[in-house]
Specification:
The protein is an alpha+beta fold. The chain is 41% helix and 21% strand. It binds phenylalanine.
Length: 340
């Protein structure tokens, strides 16, 4: 058996030396070292040996096994280095660059605003896109006869109660009441998010767009706090003096209510499709929170007051990047999106 083992070792080494194809390596490995390979066969024979012969042959068996394994290890290594340095592999070629996406312009501006408001002590909140009539209208002092309740403006969805139907929120304002209920007063919060309206789409109308609600409720909050915060906000977004005008505006959930307009950046005030030839763009409806809204939020309007605003985030993004068609924001056209 000693001879047989030595012979086996020689044969294995010889065969490995003449090997040229890496694919054959595995085959030879199985032939010698496999579960039913030649070494395993020797193992069986070894078990049948007489006690006296065992120590010597056992030691040799181990030695042969280690030798063959070593030979395999070396040849595998040499195959690997040969592959890397072989002529058809050019190590100087540049690698394949992974495709990188980029953040949607709306989300970029949203995040900037979140930072700005956090620096002023605001919470950043998220709210449900499928809302109830109660939070979207009722709690905001929007009576049932109000035209916004019409299905011409609002997407109603199945479910909910007959006296409190479900809908896709038409603004982020429902979060005013939800935030007051959840966090109480004093409160400073902004709520960025998508809102939905049943619109005939054109350059300045979309069925889905972004708003950012702002709400501050505390003792002795007045219009001057509102104006100061709005100025800070516009400065932070446009990094320059922005021409603005305040008009009275009607929203059932603020009193008094205002419309803050900015001079159109696209046309510079001469009139274009975005500003509907007016030269001014409605950007920021705002006002002092109506006492009924405070009450719906569980806050005593005799003790507390507040202001709220509903920033048109989509419109703001359009102004900032001079985008002249709102439909581009949701169009999914990579030629457009890759520019940001
Ligand atoms: N929610 C109103 C809208 O979408 C905007 C608004 C918010 C007005 C807060 C006043 C105060 O039109």
């Amino acid at each position: 058996m000693q001879k047989e083992l030595e012979h086996l070792r020689e044969r294995a080494k010889e065969e490995l030396k003449t090997l040229t194809e890496q694919a054959d390596l595995e085959k030879i490995k199985i032939k010698y070292l496999g579960r039913k390979g030649e070494l395993a066969e020797m193992m069986k024979k070894f078990k049948e040996l007489a006690q006296a012969e065992r120590p010597k042959i056992g030691a040799l068996l181990n030695e042969v096994k280690i030798d063959i394994e070593k030979a395999f290890h070396e040849i595998t290594k040499s195959f690997k280095s040969a592959t890397v340095s072989s002529a058809n592999f050019d190590v100087t070629l540049p690698g394949i660059k992974p495709e990188r996406g980029n953040i949607h312009p709306v989300l970029q501006v949203q995040r900037e605003l979140e930072d700005l408001f956090r620096s002023m002590g605001f919470k950043v909140l998220d709210g449900p896109e499928v809302e109830s009539e109660f939070y979207n209208f009722e709690a905001l002092n929007i009576p049932s006869w109000h035209p916004a309740r019409e299905s011409q403006d609002t997407f109603y969805v199945k479910g909910g109660a007959s006296d409190n139907r479900l809908l896709l929120r038409t603004h982020t304002s429902p979060m005013q009441v939800r935030a007051l209920q959840q966090y109480g007063v004093p409160l400073r919060a902004v709520v960025p998010g998508r809102v939905f309206r049943y619109e005939a789409t054109d350059a300045s109308h979309e069925h889905t767009f972004w708003q950012m609600e702002g709400l501050v409720v505390d003792k002795d909050i007045s219009v001057s706090h509102l104006i100061a915060t709005m100025k800070e906000l516009l400065q932070g977004i446009f990094y320059r003096e922005v021409e603005v005008r305040l008009r009275p505006g009607y929203f059932p959930f603020v009193e008094p209510g205002f419309e803050l307009d900015i001079k159109c950046f696209i046309c510079g005030g001469t009139g274009c499709s975005v500003c509907k030839q007016r030269g001014w763009v409605e950007l920021l409806p705002c006002g002092l929170v109506h006492p009924k809204v405070l009450e719906a939020g569980g806050v005593d309007p005799k003790e507390y007051s507040g202001f709220a605003f509903g920033l048109g985030l989509s419109r703001l993004v359009m102004m900032r990047y001079k985008i002249d068609d709102i439909r581009l924001l949701l169009g999914g056209d990579l030629r457009f999106l890759k520019q940001f």
